[in-house]
Specification:
The chain contains 16 helices and 15 strands. The chain has a nine-stranded mixed sheet with strand order 3-2-1-4-5-6-9-8-7, with helices on both faces. A six-stranded parallel sheet has the order 12-11-10-13-14-15, sandwiched between helices. Helix 10 packs across helix 14. Bound molecules: 6-O-phosphono-beta-D-fructofuranose.
Length: 502
C-alpha cells in the first residue's frame, strides 16, 4: 500500500506568532515584553553536553551539544529563560560557568541506571510506545527503580527551586512519574511535561501493569505536550478509559482529582538559522570533502541516513530498499552510494544487539552482491558523530533518507532542510515519522514497502534542479517559521497564561 499523504497543519489561531521567523533575539524580546524572563528547571535523562566542556568563545554556546532530539528542542528554550537543567551524570560535571543556565547532574548507581533507563524506560516504555514490533518487557523491580529515580530527580527539583511556584519542564518517557512527585513536594509549581515519542493507542497502553501510576504521574502536570494531535488524542482517550477522567475536548483539557490539565500538540523543531549556518563550508567543499573521506569518485551520487542504531529507525529496511534499487535499476551500480551514520545506542539490550546483527548482515549481503574492489554500495559508519560532521554529510548529500518505522518527530529531517541553504537535495521521509505532517514536500515513503521505496530513491536520484529547489524552498519556509525558538514561545506563552489564570 502507498504511504498515506501527510496532512499540512501548523499554526493555531491565537498563538503569539502567526507569521515571521523566530530567532533567539525575538524570543528574548518577546519574553521580556510578555512574561518576564522567568527561570525554568528542566528535567531530562540526557544532559545537553556529555561532560562539562569548554564554551565556544564566539557563540558563547557549548562547543558540542549532545545530538539528541531533546537537546535540539529544549536547549534554545532554557538558553532564553535561564535556569537549571537537571540531568543524569557525574555530580562533578555539574556546571555553573558563564552559560545562561546551569547544569545540575544527578548521579545514578549502575543498578539504578540498569532498572530505570535500560529496564523500564527502554525495554518497557520505548517498545510499548513505538510500532516497531519489539515486545515490551515489564519487570516489577525495574518499575520500582524507575519510581525511585523519578523521586530522586523530584527531590533535586525541590532543592533547586527558588520559589514555591517554580516553572518546571519535564522531558519524555524517562520521567512519567516525576510531574506528580514534583507536585507533592511543590504543590504550587507549574509543571509542563513534554512527551517526545509517540503516545500509544489505549489498547497498546493497557498492557502495562502499572499504567495507572504512569497516567496519574503525568497528570501531576499543568500542561502535557505531545508532538502531534494524534498523540494528544491517544493520551486523552487512554486517560478517559483507564482513569475515568473528565474530558473537555473544546478546551483540550482533562480534569482528574479536582485538577485541570491542558493537553496540547507542540511539534518540536530545530534552530533557525541552524547552529552551523554562519560557519559551514560551501556546498562544493562539503561535497568534495565527504567524497574524499569515503574514497568516492567526485560524480558519485550520494544518499545519507543519520540515526541512532535503534529498531524504530528502519535502517534494515533502508538497506533492503537499496538492494532492490540496485536490482531493478542496474544503471545506479558503481554510480550511487548510501552512507548510513549510525550512533551506537543501548548496546547492552538484546533487542539492540539483534538489530545490529541484522543491519550488518543486510549491509554485507548488498555489498557482496553489488560491490566490487572499487565499489561499496552501502557504507555504515557506526560511531557518535559530532554535529559539525553530520552537517557536512547533510550538505554533501544528493538525498537524505529518514525511514522510521514509527517516530514522534525526527529532527534529522528538519536538520537536513536547515542545512541546505543551496536549496538542493531531496528529503525521503517516512510517513510514520511525526515530521511528515509538516514536511509535505518531502518524498513520502512507506518503509515497509520495499519496492516502492526503491522507486522513490530512483525518483530522488533523477529529480531535476528546479523541482528540488521548489520543494526545498517550501520545506525551508516551514522549518524557518516553526523553529525551536517558536516551539519555546508557544510553550512559554501557555505557561504564562496559566500563571495569569491562577
Ligand atoms: O526521541 C526521544 C529521545 O529521548 C531523544 O531525545 C533521544 O535521541 C533518544 O530518544 C534517546 O536516546 P538515548 O537512549 O540515547 O538517550
Amino acid at each position: 500500500m502507498r504511504a498515506r499523504q501527510a496532512e499540512p497543519s501548523l499554526v493555531r489561531p491565537g498563538e503569539p506568532d502567526e507569521y515571521g521567523t523566530w530567532t533567539a533575539e525575538r524570543l528574548e524580546a518577546w519574553l521580556r515584553a510578555s512574561t518576564g524572563r522567568e527561570p525554568v528547571i528542566v528535567v531530562s535523562h540526557r544532559a545537553p553536553r556529555r561532560s562539562a566542556q569548554a564554551i565556544d568563545s564566539r557563540t558563547r554556546g557549548p562547543v558540542e551539544l549532545e545530538s539528541s532530539g531533546i537537546v535540539s528542542a529544549v536547549e534554545p528554550l532554557i538558553r532564553a529563560c535561564s535556569g537549571v537543567w537537571v540531568a543524569h551524570g557525574k555530580e562533578e560535571d555539574s556546571t555553573s560557568d558563564d552559560q545562561p543556565y546551569r547544569v545540575r547532574r544527578v548521579s545514578l548507581e549502575d543498578e539504578e541506571q540498569h532498572g530505570f533507563y535500560y529496564g523500564f524506560a527502554n525495554e518497557a516504555l520505548w517498545p510499548m510506545c513505538h510500532r516497531a514490533h519489539v515486545k515490551p518487557t515489564f519487570r516489577p523491580d525495574d518499575f520500582t527503580t524507575y519510581w525511585n529515580v523519578n523521586a530522586r530527580f523530584a527531590d533535586v527539583v525541590r532543592q533547586e527551586a527558588s520559589s514555591d511556584s517554580p516553572l518546571v519542564f519535564v522531558q519524555d518517557y524517562h520521567f512519567a512519574l516525576a510531574p506528580q512527585l514534583v507536585r507533592e513536594r511543590l504543590p504550587h509549581s507549574r509543571v509542563i511535561t513534554f512527551w517526545h515519542i509517540p503516545f500509544p493507542h489505549w489498547q497498546e497502553f493497557e498492557v502495562c501493569p502499572w499504567g495507572q501510576y504512569l497516567l496519574e504521574g503525568l497528570l501531576g502536570s499543568s500542561i502535557i505536550g505531545f508532538q502531534t494531535p494524534l498523540d494528544c488524542r491517544n493520551f486523552i482517550e487512554t486517560v478517559e478509559r483507564c482513569l475515568g477522567a473528565h474530558v473537555d475536548r473544546y478546551h483540550d483539557a482533562l480534569t482528574y482529582g479536582g485538577r485541570q490539565v491542558l493537553v496540547r500538540a507542540y511539534p518540536t523543531s530545530v534552530r533557525w538559522p541552524g547552529w552551523w549556518a554562519s560557519c559551514s563550508p560551501t556546498i562544493e567543499i562539503c561535497r568534495e570533502s565527504i567524497r574524499r573521506q569515503l574514497c568516492l569518485p567526485v560524480d558519485t551520487q550520494l544518499g545519507v541516513g543519520v540515526d541512532r542504531l535503534d529498531h524504530t529507525k528502519g535502517i534494515e529496511e533502508k538497506f533492503l530498499a537499496i538492494e532492490r534499487l540496485l536490482e531493478c535499476y542496474p544503471e545506479y551500480r558503481e554510480r550511487f552510494v548510501f552512507a548510513q551514520l549510525a550512533a551506537p545506542s543501548r548496546e547492552t539490550l538484546p533487542a539492540y544487539r539483534d538489530l545490529r546483527a541484522r543491519v550488518l548482515a543486510a549491509r554485507d549481503r548488498v555489498n557482496a552482491r553489488f560491490g566490487s574492489a572499487n565499489y561499496t554500495p552501502i557504507i555504515l559508519l557506526e560511531e557518535h558523530h559530532t554535529q559539525a560532521h553530520v552537517n557536512l554529510f547533510l550538505r554533501a548529500a544528493d538525498f537524505c533518507y529518514v525511514g522510521s518505522l514509527h517516530e514522534g518527530m525526527n529532527l534529522v529531517a528538519k536538520e537536513f532542510v536547515s542545512a541546505r541553504d543551496d536549496e538542493r537535495g531531496v528529503l525521503l521521509l517516512s510517513a510514520f515519522a511525526g515530521a511528515a505532517r509538516e514536511l509535505t514536500d518531502a518524498l513520502s515513503i512507506n518503509p515497509y514497502d520495499i519496492d516502492d521505496a526503491a522507486s522513490v530513491i530512483a525518483r530522488a536520484l533523477t529529480m531535476n534542479d528546479e523541482e528540488q529547489a521548489e520543494r526545498m524552498r517550501r520545506m525551508r519556509s516551514v522549518v524557518s517559521e516553526y523553529s525551536a525558538w517558536r516551539w519555546a514561545a508557544h510553550i512559554l506563552s501557555d505557561a504564562a497564561r496559566l500563571r495569569r489564570e491562577r
